[in-house]
Structures are given as structure tokens and as C-alpha cells.
Amino acid sequence: MHLREEDINMSAPNRCIWCRGEPSNTTFNVSHVLPECVGNENVVLPKGIVCMQCNSHFGRRVEPALLRDPLFHVMAVFQRLTDPEDMNEFRDSVFDAEHQPVEGVERNLSCDIKVSPMNMSLNIQYAIKGQLSKSYSRRELKLLSRAVHKIAFEALAWTIFVKGLYEDIDVFDDRFDTIRKWSREGQPQNSVRPVIRHQAFHEVKPKWACYLWRFGDSLAIELNLFGDWYAVSLTSPSDKAGDDLKRWVGSKRPEDPVWSVGEKLLSLNQTES
Ligand SMILES: [Zn+2]
Which residues contact 258 (CB under 8 A, 6 or more apart)? Predict the structure, then answer.
């Protein structure tokens, strides 16, 4: 294949961090670490880091599992996340066709009216109340875990290649092969690689963030997706990831619900009712 100049980015590795494809056999495009539709304009991997095939696989097959997940959805609606390209809100209703309330929806309106000779002003409080419930298939748990691992590993790549931090970390190191195989291929098929999820409504900010967390020689990432938090191990073998991540809970001691998403959903700080 003829190598075109525009396919080479001098500051990027020119090798796909997922499939390790190189420009001689792969086409590259930019990759949004978090999808653009939820307002991600800036956290973008330039050409030469993720190939087109990997990028489109994640966009079509993997990331939708996170985008339709009820907690992420509610946070996104509440914060009115807006696609910077077309300025459309990602979603505008808590209860929609894909997120139907278990029973009816209750709406409450209170309106404090003040009238002066030529003016009327209304102080409004509008509340909506209802329940969303989601039963997960094993397939959905896998896709959700893979989506979160994808964002975490690309967030690490962004921190290294775009922000210029953590130069000691080589994303092509074999220790990331487990996460490459899991996110990109869903391998090993017979398990669900766990992540820890934590809802922190009081920490909601109209942005998302990621933090690298080192424990021993291992690396994990904390992702705050608009108040929907995840802890993701980047290097643990699949059968150790759950236990490694529980250390994160131990160090945080969150008061809000925290649970692991793996073969099952398992509450880590609440007694089962
Ligand atoms: Zn690739």
C-alpha cells in the first residue's frame, strides 16, 4: 500500500494502540476518547493513534452500551450535554422510548407569581419523578465493561500523546494486551472483566475527567463521566482485576452507592435488601 504523507503524524506513534496496525497496512483517523455526541470537543486522539477499523468498531458496537445505560443517560440529560458539532442536545428527556418508567411519571409544578402593574414574574419549581429499572443480560454487562475499558485506555493514550505526561508508560507494552483483547475483541469470552462503578451526584460537574492511579507496578484509571464514576484496572489479569479494584473502594470509602460490574452487579458498600 502506498503511504500518503497525510497518514503520518509525527507526534503520534503511527501505530494503532488497539490492533497495533501501522500506516503501511492501516488507515488512521482521529478518535474521540469519549463520543462527540456527549459534548466531547477536546479530548480527541489525533491521527496515528487509533486506526479507522478499531475506531468504527468501538463507535458502532461497543460504546452504545454505555450511552444507553440508564445512569449515564440520566446524568447526561440533567447536564444537557450537547454535541458541539450540531449543537443538538445528546438527549432531552429522562423518560424516553429507550428509558421507559416502570410505572407512571409524576410531575409537580409550583409557581410563585408576582404581579406589578405592567409585569408578571413566575418563580417556578418543576420536578419529575419516576423509576427506571434495567435488567442486564451477560452480553450487555460485557459491552458496558468493554466500553468503559476503551475510554480508560484511550484516556491514558491521550494523557501521554496529547498532554505529554507519563512518558515512562509505553502503551504498546505487553501488560496492556489484556485490556486490548478485552475491549477490542471481547476476549476471553467466558468472563466479564470487572469495573467498579460509583454514583456521586454531589460531585457532578458539567465535564468529565480521568485520573491515573498506580498501585505497585499496576495501573488503574478513575473516570468521572459526569458523576457516573468508574475505576478500571488497565494492567490486572482478568481474574485479579476485581480484587485489585476493591482497593480503590477501600481508599475512597464513598458514602454513595458503589458496586462492581462484572459477571453480576455486586454492591460493595450496601447490605443487600
Ligand atoms: Zn486498530
Answer: 196, 197, 198, 249, 252, 267, 268, 269
